[in-house]
TrEMBL record:
Database matches in SUPFAM superfamilies: P-loop containing nucleoside triphosphate hydrolases
GO molecular function, one term: [heparan sulfate]-glucosamine 3-sulfotransferase activity
Lineage: Eukaryota, Metazoa, Chordata, Craniata, Vertebrata
Cellular compartment(s): Golgi apparatus membrane
Residues of the Sulfotransferase domain: 90-328
Protein name: Sulfotransferase
Species, as recorded: Pavo cristatus (Indian peafowl)
InterPro entries from the UniProt entry: NST/OST, P-loop_NTPase, Sulfotransferase_dom
Length: 336
């Protein structure tokens, strides 16, 4: 009897010991995998000596939570001074195009530790009332950031508003300008879909896309319809080129940003003179949503709002063909 108890005791000790060793090995492997999963690495020594007041990009990543608190207004003047935080005018602006993917682009660029985004559309340059409040009002609408970070804002109406290029030029003639475009007909239908959804929420009726996009009197494309006019990219770009050289623009392919975001983001990093920090680790495909979502670190993930990626209504194929034929010469000029 005593012998059997000793055997059972040894067996229990063996099982417990195996579990303990297994847990220890798992933790060692887990720590190793976490180290490998870090999306950012220190850049000390890789880009030359740093000035004393410059903050390493890795440090900026870990201070994002602090910046978030400041954005919510939970900071004293002493805390702001202590952390050397400022509200900077943007060094780059996403000026359009509406329904081209401006929100997705802004959120994806915010993955970079040297980028700070203005969460809301400010509408400073396209709104006369806001513009009259002055540049200091605009600056105070910007998020807190460290001096060596880049602040980016986006307001898609800037691209199509006549007064905006001159106003931005007066603020900063060397600013970098981002334009994200999609296939013009797809963009126009997406524009219509957003307006349609807003009408339906208010239990209001709305015309079918075909009736708005095609002039019933001439049976030709209705250029008075705003969704069509916005998609004539070259007409708007010509206005901007009167103030800024082409080198200060970067065109993002909005259709490719949906299916292959990383190559597009890497091109933007290069345009903004940022060290490459956004990797495939930061982007993962969400099969349920049908879109890429964002991974900031092993704890914090983010998907775009549910209003993004709306299902478009069915549109008569003859209307789509007519629109694509109409946009073709404008596209050719835009590419040139």
């Amino acid at each position: 009897m005593l012998f059997k108890q000793q055997v059972l005791l040894r067996q229990k000790l063996f099982v417990l010991g195996s579990l303990a060793i297994g847990s220890l090995l798992y933790l060692v492997a887990r720590v190793g995998s976490l180290d490998r999963l870090q999306p950012l690495c220190p850049i000390d020594g890789r880009f030359g000596p740093r000035s004393q007041d410059e903050i390493p990009l890795r440090a900026l990543q870990f201070k994002r939570g602090l910046l978030h608190e400041f954005r919510k207004g939970n900071a004293t003047k002493e805390q702001i001074r202590l952390h050397n935080l400022v509200q900077q005018l943007p060094k780059a602006i996403i000026i359009g195009v509406r329904k081209g993917g401006t929100r997705a682009l802004l959120e994806m660029l915010n993955l970079h530790p040297a980028v700070v985004k203005a969460s809301q559309e400010i509408h400073f340059f396209d709104n006369d009332e806001n513009y009259a409040k002055g540049i200091e009002w605009y600056r105070k609408k910007m998020p807190f950031s460290y001096p060596h970070q880049i602040t980016i804002e986006k307001s898609p109406a800037y691209f199509i508003t006549e007064e905006v290029p001159e106003r931005i030029y007066k603020m900063n003639s060397s600013i970098k300008l981002l334009i994200i475009v999609r296939e013009p007909t797809t963009r126009a239908i997406s524009d219509y879909t957003q307006v349609l959804e807003g009408k339906e929420r208010k239990n209001k009726t709305y015309y079918k896309f075909e009736k708005l996009a095609i002039d019933p009197n001439t049976c030709e494309v209705n250029t008075k319809y705003k969704a069509v006019r916005t998609s004539i990219y070259t007409k708007h770009l010509e206005r901007w080129l009167k103030y800024f050289p082409i080198e200060q623009f970067h065109i993002v392919d909005g259709d490719r940003l949906i299916t292959e975001p990383l190559p597009e983001l890497q091109l933007v990093e290069k345009f903004l003179n940022l060290p490459p920090r956004i990797s495939q680790y930061n982007l993962y495909f969400n099969a349920t949503r049908g879109f890429y979502c964002l991974r900031f670190n092993i704890v914090f993930n983010k998907c775009l709002a549910g209003s993004k990626g709306r299902i478009h209504p069915e549109v008569d194929t003859s209307v789509i063909t007519k629109l694509r034929k109409f946009f073709h010469p404008f596209n050719q000029k835009f590419y040139q």
